[in-house]
Amino acid sequence: MIKTNNIEATFHLAHAIKQQLNNQLETQHLGISHMHVRVLKTISETPCSTAMDIAGLFKRDKAQITRLVNYLIDQKLVTKKANPNDKRSQFLELTVTGKALQQQLKALSDNVENRMIMGIKEKDLEIFTQVSEQMKSNIVEHL
Amino acid sequence: MIKTNNIEATFHLAHAIKQQLNNQLETQHLGISHMHVRVLKTISETPCSTAMDIAGLFKRDKAQITRLVNYLIDQKLVTKKANPNDKRSQFLELTVTGKALQQQLKALSDNVENRMIMGIKEKDLEIFTQVSEQMKSNIVEHL
DNA sequence: CAAACTGGATGATAATGTCAACCATATAAA
DNA sequence: TTTATATGGTTGACATTATCATCCAGTTTG
Fold it and tell me: What is the ipTM of this complex?
């Protein structure tokens, strides 16, 4: 028997975060959406990441990632570098402008996250992180 | 300083749940999406709910709710009942078919949620629920 | 009563997401 | 090694999700 509704709670939370991030991006006129933020973050943290890597990480169709990445390339925030091991794929890197923006975006995200976790005990936060990780695995492994 | 990334974790989890729900809805040929499931659930749990109530609850534009609800009315899953206090708005109710479907959907959702929480301690689950609730409030109150 | 406001419908449009087809390259099998 | 198969990425088509502006009918306030 389920008393709580963690599915609904998760939808609510994710949507609230998305709205908050998009609000901030809008008011700061950054010209990108929360999905671009996620892609930039991944590229900045993952050396030699490819479009397929991001698609796998996000569980999105590669078509969508291609479009997100190509938009960022148009905006001169990201560049492609040849992958010596495979001429089909290309490594993604931030440009100088991209790195500068990424700094801003990190500040913005940290800001939202800090507000989000206000008044929550460190210990509880750790449990939250672990549990959400576990939940994701439970679902993804079942696909 | 942030070490964990609860924003990213929440996006991952919400997306995994959404995919899983839509998969199940697809394989069972139910002809609705996870958003319709949420609307049906809300109507079934909230007597005299209106489109505006749902929009407020979900933090969505009323236009989207109108469309979701009208689709469900087309499918003869929901009906409108006059609101004696306000002729502009109408109370939403499940039809007999809607109630039957709602039973199936509850089973389906519980199934997904039960799989999702497998191997997670009851105590940790409670903390997860509380923390996600708190996080949502922290964000929503800041808008 | 007039002015301002609200619930809901609708048109326009943007962002997100998936699927299928395609091309170039890579890998496995014959 | 030549063929077959699989993979990374691009593109077109399309569905879903979401917002905004506008409108209408009905409500509330001044």
Answer: 0.94
